[in-house]
Every structure is written in structure tokens, then in C-alpha cells.
Amino acid sequence: MTQEELFKKLIAHSKEYGFIFPSSEIYDGLSAVYDYGQLGVELKNNIKRYWWDAMTKLHDNIVGIDAAIFMHPKTWEASGHVGAFNDPLIDNKDSKKRYRADVLIEDWIAKQDEKIEKEVAKAAKRFGEAFDREQFVTTNARVLEIKAKRDAAHEKMTEVLNANDLAGVKALIEELGIVCPISGTKNWTDVRQFNLMFSTQMGSTADGASIVYLRPETAQGIFVNFLNVQKTGRMKIPFGIAQIGKAFRNEIVARQFIFRMREFEQMEMQFFVKPGTEMQWFEHWRQFRMSWHRALGFGDDRYRFHDHEKLAHYANAATDVEYEFPFGFKEVEGIHSRTDFDLSQHAKFSGKKIQYFDTESGESYTPYVVETSIGVDRMFLQVFSAAYTEEKLENGEERVVMRFPAALAPVKAAVLPLVKKDGLPEVARKIVNDLKFDHYVQYDEKDSIGKRYRRQDAIGTPLCITVDHQSLEDGTVTIRHRDSMQQERVKIAELPGIVHDMVSLRPLFAKLVR
Ligand SMILES: Nc1ncnc2c1ncn2[C@@H]1O[C@H](COP(=O)(O)OP(=O)(O)OP(=O)(O)O)[C@@H](O)[C@H]1O
Predict the structure, then answer these.
(1) 281 and 361 belong to one structural domain
(2) Amino acid 205: pLDDT
(3) Block means of pLDDT (10 residues each) for the chain, length 514 residues?
(4) Are residues 182 and 41 in the same domain?
(5) Which of 194, 260, 267, 307 to mutate to test the pocket of ligand 1 (most atoms within 8 A of CB)?
(6) Which residues pair with 324 in a beta bridge?
């Protein structure tokens, strides 16, 4: 199965089992907007809980807030979003399709890599066993020519984008001969800047309505509350403020399912530190966040850091945590050392003093900030694609099993009476009633037991509890483990303890770098 086929299957599976639906689907959907279904919302909440508890409960110097989506419009002038939160946009005059100019160039660059791979495949076929890939890609004239063009395009792209040279971006698109994937023509408009913030009106027109923005990131809600939280919570530096909430970006090209959405959710933490100590904290959060990802057990080699060489003007260090999605290694989380840029800007634009008074040294200063910022939806896609497994069974059948870590699984246990009679449903219902105050459990009595197991595998339920005739005699049930499919007999009275231990976040937390 190709990675593309796998990705298509994931999307189909997420819909078929009630994890994700296209928004307003009966009206043919809304581009890059999605709804979470009955199981999706559970998985999403569990991901959020894993993040929230790891950040706030495990750190006595991190507290949470929940700021409003609407903020005073000056916030976005101060943060730089009004002036600079732009993407370069270009239209094809024939297809009337709109593209991100930098993405068109990136796609062209990716195509060069595909061309190289084609050359490699051809040569490998020709030379058979004797083929030496490393030698081939470093000496073959055709490959070297493609590589040189690719690298030159990459360098030029970085140069014109960094210089905000829109005419240069257009010139590069023309020079590379990039055509519109729809019309196949090179009939392009000029490149323009496009602001990614959504805006709307607040107040009635009679009152003198003013423009407000839907926040494009949650971080600013934290910065403007720095003094409120520091003072009322008597927080001492270093300390952090965490927040989970919706963010909105009018992405020009939204693709790859929930990877790039126009309405999404972020989990952000801003950590306020003494100037001069920020690199040490940056390193700390870099390690901590990576351990948070790896603790889920999907395989350490599927994650990597991508350290940024080119930094935003306000940052002095930045890295991304990347995960190997079916469409390649991509960013899931960003960790940024943002200096005192945000607090200083808000001090300037609001005219308020935003500083921290250090009682020990007797000095006041503007704290520096190290930020960790992760998208809930992107993390959802990461977990979903890592968990999706197709397996051939010994009896020749196939099963799709979602190998969610038990703590994240939407349904923790399914309780299944072997037959719909002889008092078995009553015993099963009683077990459900015992467990349901602490866990999301499902009762299912329809179809054969094998079919019911398959259904629970497909939604990633870690435990199936089967009630049979023996249960009536000795108060025991069979539990079947999702991954190993092993079964064992346990006492009904032991079930709450078993489920509790299985779904606890503790084993994950034990793996975190402290
Ligand atoms: N349009 C989006 N849809 C879903 N998640 C997003 C989107 N934009 C950002 N995120 C998430 O928020 C996190 C932090 O946002 P940040 O502004 O650092 O992203 P970014 O660098 O602009 O992302 P990208 O380069 O992918 O556009 C990202 O790592 C990602 O997980």
C-alpha cells in the first residue's frame, strides 16, 4: 500500500467510525473546516487532557487560563499580525485558482526529488545487485543537474521570501516554468500579500462598529494577561501560563485533511524567564516536549527536531518537533524563544508598564519568553495515523485496529454479553453501570462476538469484557486485550481496578524528562 493510499484509508476510516466529518457536509462541506464526531471528540479531549495535565498538574509553576477569542484590535497591531501575518498569493488567470506562491515553488522542488528517485529506480533496475545508490546520486550527470537546479531554486526562494520581494517570487515562478496544476498554463497574476486573519464587526453600526479579528493564535491572550496572572497568582519567575483554545487562519491553500485547517485548536504555553536564562529554558522545553511525544510509544525514530536557521526577527532560537506522517516528516509543534518582544510590544502599544519585580535582587525587568505551541488537530492526526494498523490474522481474516495508547482511547472498555438471554445482559449492564462514572464504556449485544471484537478494534477500545454463562456461576468474566488479542479470566470485582490502571496517564508521565 502506498503512503497516499494509506492516507486515503485513514480519512475514510475516521469518517466511517464517527471520528471526523467534513463541516456542514449536507451542503457539500466547507473547505478546510471539519467537525469531530462522537468518538473524535473523546479522543480529542483525551489528547488535551494529556497535554494539560503534563503542563499544569506536573509543574507547580505553570497555571492555565482560558482567554476570549475576541481581543482588542490593538493586540494584533502590537503583535505584528496586522502588518506582517501574510502569505504570498498568486492566481492563475485561466483556471481562476488561487495558490500560495511559496507552496507552488516548494512543490516544484519536491518534484525534482521525485525525478531523482525515478533516475535511481531506473538505474537500480539496470544494475541489479551491483547498484550503489550513494555512488550513483553523487556521480550521475543527470542527477547532479537536477540537484543543482533544485538547490538553486531553493536558495533563490529563501532569498526572495526573506526580502519580501514579491516581484522576485513571481520571476522565480516564471523562470522555473511552473504551470497551474488545473489549467496547465503559465498565465499568472502578480504575487500579492494576503493577510491570514479573519475579521468581523463588533457592535451595531449605530454604535460605531469596529473591526475585530478572530485570533490567529492563542498566545496573545496569555501575554495580555501576564500581569493579572502574575499578581493574583503570586507567581515567581520562572513560571508559565498554559492555554488551550481555538485559533483561526484564512489559509490560502488548505490541504492534507486536518493538517492545515482554517479553524483549529492550539495548546500553547508561554514560559516567562529572567533575561539571559532563556537558552537554558529553551533546551529544557525542547527535551520535555519531545519526551511528551515519545512517551506515547509510537516509535522514537518517527519524531525529529527541525532546528530553524532563519529566525523571525523577535526570536533567538526556534525548533519544530516533526512527525513522520504518511505524507512525510511535518511539523506538529513549535518551540520558540521569543525574547521580550511580545511583552515589550504590548507595553508600548498599551502605554502600561509590563514588568516583573524581582524581590530577591530588587530589580525590575521585562521577562523573556520561551513558548511551546502545538496544534490539537495536528496532534490528533498524528495519533490517528500512528495508531492505524491493518493486520492479517492466523485464520486468514483481516482486522483494522487503532492502536491508541489506552489513556487516549475514546472508549476504554466494551462490555459484551455472549448471548442476549439467560440473564447475561443484566450482568453486563451492571458492569457498565459500575464503570461508567469513571470511564467511557460501551455496551454491545448485537452480532457475533467476533464481529463485536472487530468493531471495538476499529475504534481502538483497549479492553473487551465478555460475560458468559460461567459468569453467572462464579462471578468471573473474560477480558480480551486489543493488541495481543490475548484473553484471560478475571473476577468482576477486579474490573474497576484493572480498567483504572490500564487507562491511567501515570506510566506516560513517568517517561517525561523532568
Ligand atoms: N492551519 C492550521 N491547521 C492546523 N494546525 C495548525 C495550523 N496552523 C498552525 N497549526 C498548529 O499550531 C502550531 C503552532 O503554530 P505556528 O504558528 O508555530 O505554526 P506555523 O509555523 O505557522 O505552521 P505551518 O508552518 O505549518 O503553517 C503548529 O505547530 C501546528 O501544530
Answers:
(1) yes
(2) 62
(3) 90 98 95 96 98 97 98 95 90 93 93 93 90 91 94 93 91 96 95 93 71 96 98 97 97 86 98 97 98 97 93 91 95 97 97 95 96 98 97 91 98 97 97 97 96 97 98 97 97 97 96 88
(4) no
(5) 260
(6) 329
**Exposure string over 170-205, b if 16+ CB within 10 A, otherwise e:** bebbeebebbbeeeeeeebeebeebbebeeeeeeee
Of 247, 261, 257, 165, whose CA–CA distance to 214 is shortest?
247
In this structure, the answer to whether residues 229 and 152 fall within a common structural domain is no
User: Binding site annotation covers 341?
Assistant: no
Q: Residue 476: give the domain boundaries.
A: 402-510
The answer to whether 442 and 411 have CB atoms below 8 angstroms apart is yes
131 is known to lie in a ligand binding site:
no
For residue 266, the ligand 1 atom closest to its alpha carbon is 12
CATH number of the domain at 123, please: 3.30.40
Q: 193, 209, 236: which is the final residue of a domain?
A: 193
* 25 is an annotated ligand-binding site residue: no
Nearest residue (CA) to ligand 1, atom 9: 375
Atom 30, ligand 1: residue with shortest CA distance: 375
The enclosing domain of 219 has a CATH number of 3.30.930.10
Final residue before a domain boundary, out of 193, 208, 242: 193
In a domain, 392, yes or no: no
Please give the distance, rounded to the nearest whole angstrom, from the Cα atom of residue 375 to the centre of ligand 1.
Answer: 6
Q: Is 259 annotated as a binding residue?
A: yes
ipTM metric:
0.97
Cα 153 to middle of ligand 1, angstroms: 25
What beta strand segments (E) does 326-396 contain? 328-339, 356-358, 363-365, 368-375, 388-392
**CA–CA gap between residue 431 and residue 434 (Å, rounded):** 5
Euclidean distance between CA atoms 468 and 422, whole angstroms: 9
Position in ligand 1 atom list of the atom nearest CA 249: 1
Q: Are residues 376 and 456 both part of a single domain?
A: no
* 265 annotated to a ligand binding site: yes
Alpha helices for 249-325 (secondary structure H): 278-294
**Residue of minimum CA distance from atom 8 in ligand 1:** 260
What pLDDT, on a 0 to 100 scale, did the predictor assign at position 180? 95
Centre of ligand 1 to C-alpha 74, Å, is 23
Amino acid at 214: L
Q: 332 and 251 in one domain?
A: yes
- Lining ligand 1 with CB less than 6 A are 217, 249, 251, 260-261, 264, 266, 331-334, 373-375, 377-378
129 annotated among ligand-binding-site residues: no
Q: What is the pTM of this model?
A: 0.88
